[in-house]
Specification:
The chain is an alpha+beta fold. It has twelve helices and eight strands. Helix 4 packs antiparallel against helix 6, helix 4 packs across helix 7 and helix 6 packs across helix 8.
């Protein structure tokens, strides 16, 4: 899996400059913050949680004395290790919190074909101007909804080892310091997560094929064409919804082409003014659902052999701030 553009070693091994120091410059500061934000999102599946991790990581850095900071040869490696440990702790506690979550828990979707900014400019894609490069999440296969959902099923240590090594290219010797295990054990952790991903997410089609299926899916939903919609769904398709107890949603997965098609069309019939828009979500083609200009749902899909195998419907308003531009607590 390719390392995302944001993980270039601007301030990596070999650099003894402090985060945000005058020597490293603004470019390095943005690069390291962007790397940590991308790391946190891939670890936790939440933009807000990732931002909290970044803030806590920098707070711990600036809590060090000047002599302690100067003793750290590679500040970016230190920041990465600290952020990863914070994520590891959060992943462990998240399992307990999600046992109390109402219905299904799904990762927070992010918007845009290339990048999305998580601060005041939420919802803008690259090239619109005014967004802060330090607050962007780079979208690639490692943040696809399907990938994040599967990663949520592995152990916290497996997820940390996999993300650090396979996505960010961190050596197992450094990962060992983060998770408190030997390099060989960390290699096994990453391998286990990799096998789970291969089992749950076989290689799909091209982006063009994905977009064609999503377009046909949107049209069938808009016209209420049940037969066409069923034909686009894998016989064993599974639909999961996340309302977080804030809005009405299916509390359990809906399985089977006919059941999923009727479920979706039933939702859309509730409001005649509903609007479906094709939009890239987590780097892959998806659909947003809006009423009177306000996005109320974001739908992502996995597609194999020209059929939709998985649907993820996020309707929890606390997870739609990339579209609604309304910062809320999660």
């Amino acid at each position: 899996m390719p390392i995302p553009p944001d993980s270039d070693q601007d301030t990596g091994p070999g650099s003894a400059q402090s985060p945000g120091s005058e020597q490293s410059g603004l470019g390095s500061l943005m690069a390291e913050r962007r790397r940590l934000l991308n790391l946190g999102y891939r670890m936790l599946g939440s933009v807000q949680d990732a931002e909290d991790v970044v803030q806590e990581t920098y707070a711990r850095w600036y809590a060090l004395s000047e002599s302690q900071q100067q003793a750290i040869v590679t500040p970016l490696a230190w920041l990465t290790r600290v952020a990863s440990r914070i994520c590891l702790d959060q992943l462990a506690s998240a399992r307990v919190r999600r046992e109390r979550y109402t219905g299904e828990w799904l990762p927070e979707p992010v918007r845009g074909s290339t990048t999305w900014t998580s601060t005041a400019g939420a919802g803008r894609t690259s090239g619109t101007g005014g967004d802060d490069p330090a607050d962007r999440i780079t979208l690639d296969e490692s943040v696809s909804m399907g990938m994040l959902v599967v990663l949520d099923s592995v152990t916290p240590a497996e997820r940390v080892a996999f993300v650090l090594h396979d996505v960010f290219g961190t050596p197992f010797t450094e990962i060992a310091e983060t998770v408190g295990r030997s390099p060989a054990a960390c290699r096994q952790l990453a391998s286990s997560a990799r096998r789970r991903l291969a089992e749950r997410r076989p290689v799909g089609g091209t982006t063009t094929e994905h977009r064609q299926v999503v377009s046909a899916f949107r049209e069938a939903c808009e016209t209420g064409d049940l037969d066409t919609l069923v034909a686009l769904l894998d016989p064993a398709v599974e639909s999961r919804s996340d309302g977080g107890g804030k809005v009405r949603s299916a509390l359990r997965p809906v399985t089977g082409a006919d059941k999923v098609a009727r479920f979706l069309l039933g939702l859309l019939r509730r409001d005649p003014d509903v609007e479906l828009v094709e939009e890239d979500i987590n780097g892959t083609p998806g659909v947003t659902v809006g009423i009177a200009g306000t996005t109320i749902a974001v739908l992502s899909a996995d597609i194999r052999d020209g059929l939709i195998t998985d649907l993820w419907l996020v309707v929890n308003p606390d997870k739609l701030h990339a579209w609604t531009d309304t910062p809320t607590a999660r």
